[in-house]
Specification:
Structural class of chain B: alpha+beta
Distance between the termini of chain B: 60 Å
Strand content of chain B: 25-35%
Helix content of chain A: 10-25%
Distance between the termini of chain A: 106 Å
Number of domains of chain A: 1
Shape of chain A: elongated
Number of strands of chain B: 10
Largest sheet of chain A: 5 strands, antiparallel
Oligomer: heterodimer
Low-confidence stretches of chain A: 23-33
Strand order of the largest sheet of chain A: 3-10-5-8-7
Mean pLDDT of chain A: 87
């Protein structure tokens, strides 16, 4: 009976097969690209802001019909003494904005004549932007000489929509010695108006009429 | 015998071929693509040959877009303030240049109103808006035309090769790749003006793919 013999493939064929696979593998892999994957979840919110203004230790503030507040600049015991004035800025929203507090003053003499003066009232500002500060800071930049405004020198946003964060502006009255030096002579009356403005970070040129934020210029 | 001789010759030739093959692997430069790894881990890195791309921002988080903007508005001179910029460090320690493409898609929902610009610092222009203007036409006051040009630049014929913007990372070079995102005010702006209702008005679930390969046309398609 004839026995069928199982023949092994020659070693040379196996070697050739490996060589071909290696060569083909090299060629194909050259055309393959590597990839990197990234995911981001973006949200877009708006914002709101308001000011909280009061006289320390006194009942709620009373505004004049034109929205101004009459302040007493000489009697520390008066309910509306300027040294008791306090201002907080409140902000909510995960959208980012720039803030400024505008303080406009109107001085009148005993006869009711409006005085042509706009002295800088020496308020003690919370976290003032100092002369050697540079760049954005979570501080108030006093630009009143140019436009009667304090600017918050950084973008602002709150951690949650609907919850107002408080940013103190004037929390410790003012420097009374310097106040005495700047008050116009005679019997005078002072009215002030305080407004808080927030603008989305890329549109302040349109709303505020400036190309560069004052602490950056 | 001829058959034995032929077998000897065949074995010699194949052995030589095998040796050459092994030698070829040994002398290949390290950036050759056959050596690449594709890695997606918690550090969000991937390695192509020994070209590595590393993000400076790691992990998952909600990111708030600062504001909405109008690319086509020449008055939006502070456009850059409204951008959220994703930064990727691309390091090519190899000996061959690598080309990197970007693809942006939605993981869920849609990306209506969200736009992006893929660039790097050497692109001409002081601001991102300047860099965009250097690469495509911004038609003042015409959002439709402007964003059509941007789409062509990002993904189509608006950039060389016809597959949209790519950035070449030369060998032995580190490049900072950036992707600037913004929301188009024309599309999303109106509800944002309702400050009586402060809330999230738009969300975008964005998936980005950076694809690296050899610096030639043709291998990448969208």
């Amino acid at each position: 009976m004839k026995k069928e013999k199982l023949r092994k493939p020659p070693a040379a064929v196996l070697v050739a097969l490996i060589a071909v696979i290696a060569a083909v593998g090299t060629t194909v892999a050259w055309l393959t690209a590597g990839q990197g994957l990234m995911d981001r979840f973006f949200s877009l919110s708006n914002f709101d802001t308001k000011a909280n203004i009061w006289f320390e230790g006194e009942s709620p503030i009373t505004k004049n019909s034109d929205g101004t507040i009459t302040v007493d600049v000489t009697n520390p015991d008066a309910a509306n003494y300027i040294g008791k004035l306090r201002v907080n800025a409140l902000y909510t929203g995960r959208g980012k904005a720039y803030l400024r507090v505008k303080m406009i003053q109107q001085w009148t003499d005993a006869g009711g004549t409006v005085l042509n003066t706009n002295v800088l009232l020496p308020f003690v500002v919370s976290s003032p932007y100092l002369p050697d500060d540079t760049g954005d800071q979570n501080k108030w930049f006093d630009n009143r000489l140019d436009d009667y405004c304090f600017y918050y020198a950084a973008k602002i946003s709150s951690s949650a929509n609907g919850t107002y964060d408080t940013i103190p502006v004037i929390v410790a009255g003012l420097d009374t010695d310097r106040l005495a030096a700047v008050i116009p002579g005679g019997t005078v009356t002072l009215k002030i108006a305080v407004t808080l403005e927030a603008v989305q970070v890329n549109r302040y040129p349109q709303f505020w009429g400036i190309d560069t934020l004052p602490w950056r210029s | 015998m001829p058959r034995k001789r032929m077998k000897k010759v065949f074995t010699s030739v194949v052995s030589l071929l095998f040796a050459l093959s092994i030698g070829w692997f040994a002398v290949l430069p390290p950036t050759s693509a056959w050596f690449y790894q594709n890695l997606h881990d918690e550090n969000e890195q991937f390695i192509f040959g020994i070209l590595s791309l590393n993000q400076t921002y790691l992990g998952d988080a909600d990111i708030d877009l600062p504001a909405a903007a109008k690319l086509e508005d020449s008055g939006d001179i502070r456009f850059d303030e409204a951008l959220e910029i994703v930064t990727v460090d691309a390091v090519n320690d190899g000996t061959l240049p690598a080309r990197v493409y970007l693809t942006v898609t939605a993981n869920s929902g849609n990306l209506t109103g969200l736009h992006y610009f893929f660039y790097f610092d050497d692109d001409t222009g002081a601001t991102v808006k300047d860099k965009i203007a250097g690469k495509m036409t911004i038609t003042d006051g015409n959002a439709v035309s402007t964003y059509a040009a941007l789409d062509a630049y990002n993904t189509g014929s608006g950039y060389a090769g016809g597959q949209g913007r790519y950035i070449v990372v030369p060998p032995s070079t580190t490049k900072v790749l950036r992707i600037a995102f913004w929301a188009d005010y024309n599309t999303v702006g109106a509800p944002l003006e309702n400050t009586g209702n402060v809330t999230v008005y738009n969300t975008y679930d964005v998936h980005m793919v950076l694809t690296a390969g050899q610096n030639t046309d043709g291998w990448f398609t969208r």
